[in-house]
Design brief:
heterodimer, A: alpha/beta, N-terminal domain of TfIIb, seven-stranded mixed sheet, B: mainly alpha, TorD-like, 62% helix, globular
């Protein structure tokens, strides 16, 4: 085509275009080229890249990392070589932070719902409009229903500043979820009460690297990957430590065990009580240690007398000689015995605290508290506190007549209100109405049991908003969506690591926030301003961190000159004759009088968890090593590594039902709720009375780019749950499933019969 | 007289978030006229477009959606083998900005956003960078635009976005088949 032939516009087109006043080059849209914007070196890959030390947040473990920046672009993430915990190592998730930062699906602008809740129709709005609308609704709900009508579901570093707003407004309805109420609550209560500190909360103070024998009860190290924790586990094994694993499924850790006990789900406490009795009866415990450092030994001795190995064997469906071999291994290694406290402990509701109390008793009997290779003490690093984040005037908080925390006598030491109670109150309006939810950093639909109730509650709300990085299912239900900056685009806080290799480090940005994403501090500050709260007086989060560092005698300059991380000397161990526990008595409480005062058992008793109804198996779940909760299934790189989960099905059960390995099935729970299609993994590595799947898959969100309909969601099958009576956590292993194949119901045959009189879950017809 | 740059700027604006109903209304007439003059057919365009519906659709197609962004309007998404933003596609276009003597826009969108690339092509066409424009079209924009357009149509967009996509495609194709010389005002 010659230029003279090119596009002869008609008069009407010319007129239409002219009416649009298009003057591309006169508006100064483009600025003249600036030589400093030139890109620079051409070395391949990450060679020659600028390195910025910072802290990962692809999961809560927060490994120190180094971000490699080239031409203004993040090209690679590695572990910070200065870090004594992870060194240059990062896990698959840590690597894939690059994908999170540059993910085309990430939230880019504030959005406002324009369709029905859950429909996913939005308009782009300004930050001003978004924050004005949130503040208006918070104010309106608070005035009409009182402060407790404002609820906040939060998780992770991005949620902390905004939590201060809700707390300052005087609501008790914030969840600190899922950290406590779906995960660590029961274990935290057990150890706080018996040992005086949280041996297992975010982190676990258990010296696997230097131990001679380890016990894991349902703990899937290697599948839940926290780099330094896995390293310590492997170090211990490589130095010859023995390993005992108790798990209904032959997990990655079980694969390395000297004794593997495939226990009947729900009977762990029976095994632990029988072991405690065995240790006492056979005088395998550290008598001087117990005498000096423990209280309640005689109560325990009396209480556990009836729990023999012979009694436990049929209940746990284990062989007596295997149980005996395992406890002998653990006893022989004392005091260098690592009784892992566990982490995710919200299993069955009623017995969860007791189970972890048993683990605590066992560790104490072996004298392996404060001992090398046992449970150790954190090395506290005094953190600075930025006073500018606090709100100037505390508002008068009116306690509700009936608090959602009232039912749980041991919730006091823990922050927040149980999520299950927040959801029930939102549905029923009792004991007080909840009319507004703020959600920050957590996909509540895929995290809290019975998502059907969660969705029902959302429909009752006057207003719901979220701050997120990716548009997950929670965003789908929100009225306003705020795009939060990723952990790679912001300063956050000073992070201290108080385990065996203590250090201090900080998170600092490796990129400006992309698109119109804003940092959590900026968002909280702007929202507080609109609510007339005098909070967040530092200009920005960098000032917050600077103030925290200053109080520690540090600065960004000093920290960065040392590679972004400063190490401290650890003080984890105590001599047995110098041990003082951080309890009121200074001793380990084997028997807990406080529990008895609240009508619980001072020494745990075995209370059977109802077994599966006829035709069903118990649904159990765990983690994929390359995913974090339900947050990363849409991440391109991680999805590539593990796009879907599998339903682990016992091979004998599969043979009886005619199900082949890799065949697609559907799971149906006790309330008739059905899963997405999921492939069966037929294996002898799981008991016949349970079915396992990795958590977080099976998104129900239509056409979610990569995660939609990939595998099945455990959460959508967990519709039976009970609250732990100590602190209100929701149980997660109290639902059951059977199989649907080609539209036909396949009942699970009972290949391991229950002992006589063992209770069974009853399905209510309603 | 309307310059090629003005036409490309109009099309580029069509790929930015719609804030003004008048633009949609007048734009419909302009798109229909351009389609006629370019010799292609486009679907019927409403005389009274619904701004709110248009905004919702724009968000779903190009910004964010729990269903996944239907057609990310960024060169990098199509040029980078891992479909990440701010990668090779961005670097390529930065090179063209530099050669045209321009600094890329300050954001918040990246410099390889389709709208900015159309503005850049328009600047080149109107300011004597014909050879550079040909290179830009054949080695960059027309490498990824067809892939973008395919994704756009897979999302069954409204008539407006179908028309915008088709007119942009045809104009770029005709521009790239020019043989030398400057582009006179049409």
């Amino acid at each position: 085509m010659k230029r003279r032939d090119f596009l002869k516009l008609s008069a009407s087109t010319t007129l239409a275009l002219a009416s649009l006043s298009l003057e591309p080059n006169q508006k100064g849209f483009f600025k003249p080229y600036n030589a400093t914007a030139a890109t620079g070196n051409q070395l391949p890959g990450s060679l020659g890249a600028k390195e910025i030390p910072t802290v990962c947040e692809m999961c809560f473990w927060r490994c120190p990392i180094v971000a490699k920046i080239k031409n203004g672009k993040l090209v690679k993430i590695e572990g910070n070589p200065k870090s004594p915990a992870n060194g240059t190592r990062v896990c698959a998730r840590g690597n894939s932070g690059v994908q999170l930062l540059y993910d085309p699906d990430r939230l880019k602008y504030p959005l406002k719902r324009t369709g029905e809740r859950g429909e996913g129709k939005w308009a782009k709005i300004s930050w001003k409009e978004a924050l004005d609308e949130i503040a208006f609704n918070m104010d309106k709900v608070q005035k009409k229903y009182g402060p407790h009508a404002l609820a906040y579901f939060d998780h992770g570093a991005s949620a902390e500043f905004m939590r201060e707003i809700f707390k300052t407004l005087g609501t008790e309805s914030y969840s600190n979820e899922p950290a406590f109420f779906q995960c660590v609550g029961p274990v935290a209560v057990a150890y706080l009460t018996t040992m005086g500190y949280v041996v297992s909360g975010t982190r676990q103070y258990v010296d696997m690297a230097n131990t001679k024998a380890m016990l894991l009860v349902g703990t899937h190290i290697g599948e839940n990957v926290h780099v330094s924790h896995v390293r310590e586990f492997v170090q211990g094994l490589s130095k010859g430590a023995k390993l005992v694993v108790v798990d209904p499924r032959f997990s990655t850790a079980a694969n390395k065990a000297d004794v593997y006990l495939p226990i009947r789900p729900g009977t762990d406490t029976a095994l632990l009580l029988a072991w405690i009795n065995y240790v006492i009866e056979n005088k395998l415990y550290d008598e001087p240690f117990v005498k000096r450092n423990c209280s309640g030994f005689d109560d325990v001795k009396t209480a556990v007398k009836k729990y023999t190995l012979e009694w436990a064997a049929p209940i746990c469906d284990l062989k007596i000689e295997d149980m005996k071999a395992a406890i002998e291994i653990l006893a022989k290694a004392q005091p260098h015995t690592a009784i892992h406290p566990g982490r995710h402990s919200t299993w069955y509701g009623r017995g969860d605290v007791g189970r972890h109390q048993c683990l605590s008793i066992l560790a104490a009997l072996f004298g392996s508290v404060g001992a090398e290779g046992g449970i150790y003490f954190p090395t506290p690093i005094k953190k600075g506190h930025a006073h500018c984040t606090a709100c100037k005037e505390e508002r008068e908080v009116e306690e509700p007549d009936v608090s959602l925390r009232d039912n749980y006598p041991f919730i006091e030491a823990l922050p927040g209100t149980p999520t299950a109670d927040l959801i029930k109150a939102t549905i029923t309006g009792k004991p007080y109405p909840i009319k507004l939810w703020g959600i920050n950093g957590v996909n509540i639909i895929q995290t809290i049991p019975n998502p059907y109730d969660t969705m029902k509650a959302i429909k009752n709300l006057d207003f719901i908003f979220c701050e997120e990085m990716m548009p997950g299912e929670t965003a789908l239900w929100s009225d306003i969506i705020l795009p939060g900056a990723t952990y790679l685009e912001r300063y956050d806080a000073v992070y201290t690591y108080d385990l065996l290799t203590p250090y201090v480090t900080v998170r600092q940005p490796v990129s400006d926030p992309l698109f119109e994403a804003k940092t959590p501090y900026w968002i909280a500050k702007e929202l507080a301003k609109r609510l007339n709260l005098d909070c967040f007086r530092c200009a920005n989060e960098k000032e917050v961190v600077e103030e925290e560092l200053k109080q520690m005698g540090l600065s960004f300059e000093k920290l960065n000159s040392e590679g972004g991380l400063i190490k401290f000397k650890a003080n984890p161990y105590r001599k047995p004759n110098e041990l003082t526990m951080p309890t009121d008595s200074g001793k380990i409480l084997l028997s807990v009088p406080e529990f008895a005062e609240e009508d619980f058992d001072a020494v745990p008793k075995f209370i059977p968890t109802p077994a599966p109804p006829k035709g069903f198996a118990r649904l159990i779940y765990g983690r994929s090593p390359v995913h974090t909760f339900s947050r990363t299934m849409n991440n391109l790189w991680l999805n590539h590594e593990c796009p879907e989960n599998y339903a682990w099905l016992n091979d004998e059960v599969a043979a009886k039902l005619g199900i082949q390995d890799g065949e697609t099935i559907i799971l149906e729970n006790e309330h008739g709720k059905r899963s997405n299609p999921i492939k069966a993994k037929v294996t002898p590595g799981i008991r016949p009375d349970c079915i396992y799947m990795a958590h977080g898959f099976g998104s129900k969100s239509k056409h979610l780019t990569r995660a939609f309909k990939k595998g099945a969601s455990d959460q959508y099958l967990i519709t039976t749950y009970e609250n732990d009576p100590f602190m209100g956590a929701s149980s997660h292993r109290t639902s059951f499933v059977r199989i649907i194949k080609q539209d036909k119901v396949k009942n699970i045959p009972e290949l391991r019969p229950l002992p006589e009189g063992f209770p069974r879950f009853e399905i209510r017809k309603s | 007289m309307v310059s090629i740059g003005a036409i490309l700027t109009f099309l580029g604006q069509g790929f930015l978030y719609p804030e003004d109903k008048k633009f949609l209304k007048k734009g419909s007439t302009a798109l229909a006229g351009l389609a006629h003059d370019l010799g292609i057919s486009i679907p019927f365009l409403e005389e009274e477009p619904d701004l709110a519906a248009h905004q919702s659709e724009f968000v779903k197609l190009f910004i964010a959606s729990p269903q996944g962004v239907s057609a990310p309007p960024y060169g990098s998404y199509y040029i980078n083998s891992r479909k990440l933003l701010f990668q090779e596609g961005t670097e390529q276009v930065l090179n063209y900005y530099e050669k045209a003597g321009l600094h890329p826009p300050d954001g918040p969108e990246p410099p390889d956003h389709l709208a900015f690339e159309l503005f850049l092509a328009g600047y080149m066409a109107d300011n004597g960078f014909e050879a550079l424009l040909q290179d830009f079209l054949s080695h960059h924009l027309l490498i990824w635009y067809p892939q973008f357009e395919k994704k756009l149509f897979e999302a069954s967009p409204s008539n407006w976005f179908q028309a915008l996509g088709l007119v942009t495609e045809e104009l770029l194709k005709q521009l790239s088949s020019m043989e030398g010389g400057s582009y006179e005002k049409a």
